[in-house]
Design goal:
Shape: globular
Radius of gyration: 21 Å
Distance between the termini: 40 Å
Number of helices: 17
Helix content: over 70%
Order of helices and strands: HHHHHHHHHHHHHHHHH
Strand content: under 5%
């Protein structure tokens, strides 16, 4: 919704006139908070899966960790870059990388070496389908160092201290260290890694401690309250100066991790009514990397139709549905088959790439301290 809104905003279509400012902000300007929530979920999933796969963070295999990440991330990323390169060569407006940003070659190298965010902070924004790779840059740079830190620091107190340091540095990454660069305030490594680190800490805590159900409910409720404040009262947080000191995004990440902790500990399962949202979550990588094709296509049709204000809700809904279906199709037909093929080729079995341990629950194991 944020990216559809940006197209409408650039087209100077005042479709939010008459809506309360906070309502419009919550609906269509919350993309950055959405990414922050994703970072927290990512950190939790990677750490909890590593604990189940290797039983201990100090036993994480560098080779196998990187193989698994490559199998999941690289096939779709390389396909996307090939398609974007072709569209640039064909001179299709929404996909042409401008010379001021270094051109196609510079963007291609930045995408492959996970510093799209750095490039945009220095040269300006890339086209939308390239721009979304900034968050992948933050995430993958974190995971480049994650397994080595697990092995060197043993997943113990020193490792936890490093993660806490990332959490503490997050607000500084979004403010002081950004030095007034508006792009870097949102796209910096430290500005996103605090949420990933919080997700990692949540997984480690749940591996060590079992909360009483009443405590889990309280933590879940407080986390939901923090998310409601962050997503629905962001203007008030801004008025209090929390955005200026970079704490607003920290609140979003903390609230997300509290909800994660409560739901993971309790084994809560969502209603079948939420299955479409769950499916979007399961295909989030495919949806995220491909959704700008849908945004550009449907917005182009919207422009051809004369940009009727009454059709704006249809534009939003149809974009979300089409992006979801595209992500599902790409996952089923390409990224998941490639993921399984590469894992099989490199030997995903207990003797080489440790299969995820299914016969024990790491959440219920009190003596699993690492």
């Amino acid at each position: 919704m944020n990216h559809v809104n940006m197209r409408l905003f650039l087209a100077k279509l005042p479709y939010t006139q008459g809506l309360p400012v906070q309502l419009a902000s919550s609906l269509v300007w919350n993309g950055q908070r959405g990414v922050q929530m994703f970072f927290a979920i990512s950190g939790f999933l990677i750490t909890s899966t590593s604990l189940r796969r290797w039983d201990s963070l100090r036993k994480v295999s560098l080779r196998d960790f990187y193989v698994l990440r490559f199998a999941r991330i690289a096939p779709l990323l390389l396909l996307l870059l090939a398609v974007l390169t072709l569209l640039h060569i064909l001179d299709l407006g929404d996909f042409v990388v401008p010379a001021r940003t270094g051109g196609l070659g510079r963007a291609f190298v930045a995408a492959l070496t996970f510093h799209i965010n750095v490039l945009e902070a220095h040269r300006g924004y890339l086209p939308g389908s390239w721009d979304v790779l900034w968050s992948l840059s933050v995430e993958e740079v974190f995971y480049l160092g994650f397994p080595a830190a697990c092995r060197l620091l043993g997943g113990g107190k020193l490792f936890i201290a490093v993660l806490i340091a990332f959490v503490m540095l997050g607000p500084f990454g979004r403010t002081v260290l950004a030095r007034g660069n508006e792009v870097w305030q949102e796209y910096s490594y430290l500005g996103g890694m605090d949420a990933i680190a919080l997700g990692c800490l949540t997984a480690i805590a749940l591996a060590r401690f079992r909360m009483h159900d009443a405590v889990a409910h309280i933590i879940g409720g407080l986390g939901a309250a923090l998310l409601i404040v962050s997503l629905c009262f962001s203007r008030q947080l801004e008025a209090w100066g929390l955005e200026r000191i970079g704490v607003d995004m920290s609140i979003t990440a903390v609230g997300t991790c509290m909800v994660i902790a409560a739901t993971a500990q309790s084994g809560w399962r969502s209603s079948a009514l939420l299955n479409p949202l769950k499916a979007l979550g399961e295909r989030s990588y495919e949806v995220y990397l491909t959704h700008m094709f849908v945004v550009f296509s449907l917005f182009g049709l919207f422009v051809i139709a004369g940009k009727p204000p009454a059709a704006v809700p249809i534009l939003f809904i149809s974009t979300i549905l089409a992006a979801g279906f595209l992500g599902e199709w790409v996952a089923r037909c390409y990224s998941e088959p490639m993921n399984r093929l590469l894992r099989s080729y490199w030997g995903e079995n207990p003797s080489r790439i440790g299969a995820v341990i299914d016969d024990r629950s790491f959440l219920a194991t009190d003596n699993q301290t690492d």
